[in-house]
Amino acid sequence: GPCTECSCSSGKxxxxxxxxxxxxxxxxxSFIPKIFFGTRTHKQISQITRELKRTAYSSVPMTILSSRDxxxxxxxxxxxxxxxxxxxxxxxxxxxxxxxxxxHGVHKLxxxxxxxxxxxxxxxxxxxDLVSLGKKLRACAYFAARELMVGADIxxxxxxxxxxxxxxxxxxxxxxxxxxxxxxxxxIEDCARESVSYSVTESQLRAARxxxxxxxxxxxxQKDHKPLQAVCCSLT
Length: 236
Fold this sequence. Notes:
- The protein is α/β, with parallel strands linked by helices.
- The protein is built from 13 helices and 4 strands.
- Helix 6 crosses helix 8 and helix 12 packs antiparallel against helix 13.
- The longest helix is centred in the C-terminal third of the chain and has 16 residues.
């Protein structure tokens, strides 16, 4: 029967209920926050998803955001050294007349997860599970994980995805009104420091100084380049 301690017992709506009803009538969904779960390492994400699988919430829609180092399945890009991001971008832009067929198969992965969810077969998964499925379906695990973020209730990712504004922007992460959980938060200080730090070698400084000297001597945007030239000179 109806409860006696809230508005439903009298058949009246509270202001909140009325606003939610109005949203539904207008075709808008009421805002439901996501849970962003940040960890220090990718290995810790594996441990947490394994624990999630053992709970009653194993079937909750989720995704894991990670770098191309962990999720790229393109045979050439994934076997390259440190320039995977650049190679991926070049393929997506078709710079050398080649494209990434795995990127064009992204929808296969998101549809697979939607199908599993519809048949109540959905379970918490790990990066390795997604990569393995991506290889099987010939679909990009990196972009699939990003697509799955739209419908996910829980988003797992390393700390810097939440702390670094540039990464947040590139991954289209909006934390306004969301729930943020930081595992082992005593590591945040070091991670935040790393996010706004940059290492540069003396040879790089000298090369930059030579380029800036050329710009200034040839009267190319002197207003912008002179202060940078002064910084390089003082550092070297």
